[in-house]
Structures are given as structure tokens and as C-alpha cells.
Design brief:
The protein has about 290 residues and is an alpha/beta fold. Helix 5 packs parallel to helix 6.
């Protein structure tokens, strides 16, 4: 049951020439974006700022998480030239920081799509020397070879979301494993990568559980943490349990900085790649 709609965030729907430009470039490059596929509420703001999160390995996910509106089914993707097209699209957009994500590809036995991931990072950095590359990856089922393949391509920021507090994780993403996600983050940090993760709130978690989650990941060495309000994308998805106040989001931010995060992005409409370019500058400048 929803406790209060008082704090339900309002999405600003407005478009300008930048929005139309980004939309055109994405369509002409035959690329998918998590902005559109996941019905992100920030698509208008981000595309107006000429930022987008590109999604590789197709538009069909092999998992069916209770919060996500990305299409689920048997993927038919087969596009070995995708890494080059992504790199060229980044150049056309004139980006200084790009976020690349993907659907889960548990059907790609062997590396779960890691080779395409690595090639996309390599090509993007090769063609866009002044652009920093942030990746938001699946867990690759915790496969060490797959993870090392991605790590070795040296993204500037590696991100993998734990998505929610551990107690409700199975209900939120049945085919994932919370401890496995922690292991992915730990491996990234062990390889010397700047590492990021995030969660949604409003799914029935308690304040102390959010704080415990933050403490666990900062103790691993995660530098960037994001917290946003879960919004039900369709009636088929998990219902919202609560709308969190702006004051509570601010309290999470204050707590996050107090325990050692370099960057905490906390607010009702915050998503994994929301203001990622600004977060990256903060982390790079702190080195």
C-alpha cells in the first residue's frame, strides 16, 4: 500500500532543439538508449543537455526484473559492428562523457556479451580521445573471465547497481543475486577502477537498511552512489510502496558524504546516469 502521494515527483516534459538533435542521431545510428527503453523520467532534461545513455546488445533482456520496463524475451540481436556505430555516434554528438549500458544477455554463453562490451569501450575511447567512458553493466552472472574482459578495456568509471536493499532484492530482481552484485563491485575496485553503484527507494525498505547498504558499499571502496525514487513504469510492474520526501533524500546525501563517498546523487528523479557527466568531473578532479 502506498503511504503517501504527497512526495510523488513531477516530471518536466519539455523539448528543445538539442532534444530533437539527440533523438535524430540515435535513430539515424540505429542505436538503443536506456532513456527510451526504460522510460526514464529524465529523458527530456538529459537530451535537452545533449546527454544520453546508449544501450548495447539489443533491446531485449533475458531477465524480467519487477521494476524494469525494458522488453523481456529471447534476444535476436546480431550486430558485430555495433561497437563502431556507438563510437561514431558519440563523436557525432560531441560528447565529453558517455554512459553505456546494456540488457542482460544470459543467453550468450561463454562471456555473456563481455567481448562486445570491451570492444565498444575500446572503439569509443579510440575515436573519442577527449571523451570519458562510463559503463553500467549487468553482473555477467559473476563470471570472472567476463568481468576481467570488461575491466581490461579500462572504462573511466565502472558502474553496476545493487538496485535495492538486500532484504527485498529477490522480490525486486528474482534472477539476480545481491551478494553477487557486491562481488562485481569488489572485483572492479580490486582492478583499480573508479566504481559506482545505486539503489531505488520506495519499494518497502527501511531507512536503516538504506544506510546499511550505503555503509557496505562505501567500505568496499565504491566512490559514487546514487539514490532515486522508484516509479512504477506500468501496472504489470511492482507497485510503489512509498514516495520518499525530499528531506529524506537530502538526509541520505548528508549521510553518504559523512561515511566517505566522493559523490552522492540523491533525489526523487535521480537515476543511475543522471548528471553522470558532472559526477565524473567531481571524481576526476578529486584525484
Amino acid at each position: 500500500m502506498i503511504h503517501s502521494r504527497l512526495h510523488k515527483p513531477k516530471v518536466n516534459i519539455s523539448t528543445d532543439k538539442n532534444y530533437k538533435s539527440v533523438k535524430k542521431m540515435v535513430q539515424e545510428s540505429y542505436l538503443n538508449t536506456v532513456c527510451a527503453e526504460a522510460r526514464c523520467p529524465n529523458i527530456y532534461e538529459c537530451w535537452n543537455r545533449k546527454t544520453a545513455t546508449l544501450m548495447i546488445l539489443g533491446d531485449t533482456c533475458t531477465r524480467a526484473c519487477g521494476f524494469c520496463s525494458v522488453k523481456t524475451g529471447k534476444p535476436t540481436w546480431n550486430d558485430p559492428l555495433e561497437p563502431v556505430r556507438v563510437a561514431q555516434a558519440v563523436k557525432k554528438m560531441g560528447l565529453r562523457h558517455v554512459v553505456i549500458t546494456s540488457v542482460d544477455r544470459d543467453d550468450l554463453k561463454g562471456d555473456y556479451g563481455a567481448a562486445i562490451w570491451a570492444e565498444t569501450i575500446t572503439q569509443t575511447k579510440k575515436i573519442n580521445e577527449k571523451c570519458t567512458v562510463e559503463v553500467l553493466t549487468p553482473d555477467f552472472k559473476g563470471d570472472e573471465f567476463a568481468l576481467k574482459t570488461v575491466f581490461d578495456s579500462q572504462p573511466d568509471i565502472f558502474s553496476h547497481n545493487v538496485e535495492c536493499v538486500e532484504r527485498i532484492s529477490k522480490a525486486v530482481r528474482a534472477q539476480a543475486n545481491w551478494q553477487r552484485s557486491l562481488g562485481v563491485l569488489k572485483s572492479s575496485i580490486s582492478c583499480g577502477l573508479r566504481t559506482k553503484t545505486g539503489i531505488m527507494v520506495g519499494l518497502g525498505e527501511q531507512v536503516d537498511e538504506v544506510k546499511e547498504t550505503m555503509k557496505q558499499v562505501v567500505d568496499l571502496g565504491v566512490q559514487i552512489f546514487t539514490i532515486g525514487q522508484y516509479l512504477q513504469p506500468t501496472k504489470k510492474h511492482l507497485p510503489v510502496q512509498d514516495y520518499i520526501s525530499k528531506e529524506q533524500f537530502e538526509a541520505y546525501k548528508v549521510y553518504g558524504y559523512s561515511i566517505g563517498f566522493k559523490v552522492v546523487e540523491s533525489g526523487p528523479l535521480v537515476r543511475s546516469s543522471y548528471h553522470a557527466d558532472e559526477q565524473a568531473r567531481m571524481v576526476f578532479n578529486d584525484v
